[in-house]
Amino acid sequence: MVAPVRIIGIDPGLRSTGWGIIESGGSRLAYLASGTIASDAGLSLAERLQQLFVGLNAVTGEWRPVEASVETTFVNRDAAATLKLGQARGIALLVPALSGISVFEYAPNLVKKSVVGAGHADKRQIRAMVEHLLPRARPEDEHATDALAVAITHAHHRERMELRENRSGEEALTQ
Fold this sequence. Notes:
175 residues
């Protein structure tokens, strides 16, 4: 039996940053919590980023994940929006790193492919698979759903990374 690892998935956004906490032990996944941290659009950019920082800090402090997975930035045609998203993503990377949590990043298409099996899945398909893989999960919105999908992606990929590391160690021992 593999000891479970607590993972936080983060779907960064300036308006809303989704988060989801799961435990992964071998091929077993367990839902713990999820939610969304919203920033106040009436505040300055610095104050909105502070809201995200404080909110994520509270989540990581309460749930104590040991690994974090963050969705990479989707670049769109609006450079200003992309830059703001990048700044929110910086907070999503910084908060776990400041707590000593290992941070991993995953592209949106890889998340969709890992959870649904298709790199161009829609939001409805992602939600259905998240709820199938984590039967107790009822995420409040698409941001929390996406965060859980990012956490699931990391759980699947960390398992493969561990297998590769174990095989490499075994090969080194036999040589």
